[in-house]
């Protein structure tokens, strides 16, 4: 379980190791997990809803793992199966290269109620959200070792590694990958200590239910968000780099 107290303690310990202070002396300005939210690594439950990923040979080589957690929230029966695909790096755009960086983390959230998939929200373009729900949802789900289709099919888009939703009928079983799940709650504090979430909205990670009302994982007050928004507008207008 990833509680607020554990997150604060983990951050303090990580910062203490970085700047040479004891954990008691490290001040941490961090809101963390809301009191009404609980995050756990329930591997068997998470395996039931994990995305079936389609990746190029480059995507397969760069894949580090699929880090997952289960989010429950008071006063709602909807749970969220959260998956962050971690990759070694992202190449910059051809001729520009300005968005290349080490490590890449791409989210996909599956909203579940009474065991059934209600909606899938995923990064469809540079951490801007796309979703599948309603009548479209069934066409994008496949089964894996069970008779029930509960896995969204998502194709990893090179070189940015965000996703395209793929109809089940448009993909072959042999090209879909079900990665072994890693424990997000164990890895998260080290990611945060290395500024992985620097431009990410806290609630988008620690209150996953909020992604039903948000249009991105970005912290809207950051320079990164403004640049990503600019690129999206230009891409949509000019059709650069095969943007959606």
Tell me the layout of helices and strands.
Blueprint: H1 4-19, E1 37-40, H2 43-47, E2 52-54, H3 57-62, E3 63-73, E4 79-90, E5 101-113, E6 116-125, E7 128-133, E8 141-142, E9 151-156, E10 163-165, E11 181-183, H4 184-193, H5 202-206, H6 223-238
Parallel strand pairs: 2-9, 3-11
Antiparallel strand pairs: 1-3, 3-4, 4-5, 5-6, 6-7, 8-9, 9-10
Mean pLDDT: 79
- Unreliable parts: 2-30, 95-102
**First and last CA, distance:** 37 Å
Overall geometry comes to globular
How many helix segments? 6
Structure notes:
This protein has 2 domains: 1-30; 36-242, no CATH class. It has 6 helices and 11 strands. The protein has helices spanning 4-19, 43-47, 57-62, 184-193, 202-206, 223-238; strands at residues 37-40, 52-54, 63-73, 79-90, 101-113, 116-125, 128-133, 141-142, 151-156, 163-165, 181-183. Strands 1, 3, 4, 5, 6, 7 and 11 form a 7-stranded mixed β-sheet that branches. Helix 1 (4-19) crosses helix 4 (184-193). The radius of gyration is 18 Å and the shape is globular.
């Amino acid at each position: 379980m990833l509680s607020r107290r554990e997150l604060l303690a983990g951050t303090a310990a990580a910062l203490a190791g970085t700047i040479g202070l004891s954990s008691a002396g490290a001040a941490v300005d961090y809101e963390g997990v809301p009191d009404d939210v609980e995050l756990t690594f329930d591997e068997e439950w998470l395996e039931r809803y994990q995305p079936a990923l389609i990746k190029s040979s480059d995507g397969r080589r760069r894949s580090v793992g699929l880090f997952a957690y289960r989010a429950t929230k008071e006063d709602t029966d909807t749970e969220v199966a959260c998956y962050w695909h971690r990759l070694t790096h992202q190449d910059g755009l051809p001729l520009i290269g300005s968005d290349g960086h080490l490590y890449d983390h791409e989210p996909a959230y599956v909203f579940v109620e009474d065991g059934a998939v209600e909606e899938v929200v995923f990064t469809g373009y540079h951490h801007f959200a796309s979703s599948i729900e309603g009548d479209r949802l069934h066409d994008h789900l496949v089964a894996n070792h069970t008779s029930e289709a509960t896995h969204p099919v998502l194709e990893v888009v090179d070189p940015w590694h965000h996703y395209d939703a793929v109809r089940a009928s448009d993909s072959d079983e042999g090209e879909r990958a079900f990665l072994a799940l890693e424990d997000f709650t164990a890895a998260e504090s080290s990611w945060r200590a290395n500024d992985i979430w620097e431009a990410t909205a806290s609630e988008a990670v620690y209150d996953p239910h909020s992604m039903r009302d948000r249009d991105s994982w970005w912290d809207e007050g950051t320079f990164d968000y403004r640049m990503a928004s600019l690129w999206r507008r230009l891409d949509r207008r000019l059709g650069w780099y095969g943007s959606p």
